[in-house]
Design goal:
The chain has helices spanning 2-76, 79-99, 101-118. By secondary structure, it is an all-alpha fold. Helix 1 runs antiparallel to helix 2. It starts with a helix and ends with a helix. 2% of the residues are buried. The chain crosses the membrane at residues 46-71, 83-104.
Amino acid sequence: MPDLMVEQPLRDSIDNLQEAVRRQVEAYFTLGKLQLIEYLAKVGTLLFTSVVLVILAAFFLLFVGFAFAFWYGARYGSVGQGLLIVACAWVVLGVLAYLLRGVIFSNPVVRKLWTIFFKKK
């Protein structure tokens, strides 16, 4: 009978330990889920903001190009030549953007994502 008395507190301690470990693991997974949601929200916000800014910049440049073409047409008599100048400027800007894509696009995006995911709290 004395062996049963010793076994019961040991069994209770093991059961309590198992329950504590289970709760700790659940809390760890919940924390991981919350951190993932936070990171995804930050990345989604960054993506959405970047897309909106790019669209606004593209419309701005489009209207500036048309304004230049019509100004050139009024000033020198040929809107077609103004549109051709704007098209050539777009080609030059496109080639420059392609050649400098790492510096202009990739590096800032990687740096921003790095700060989102690996920033010390």
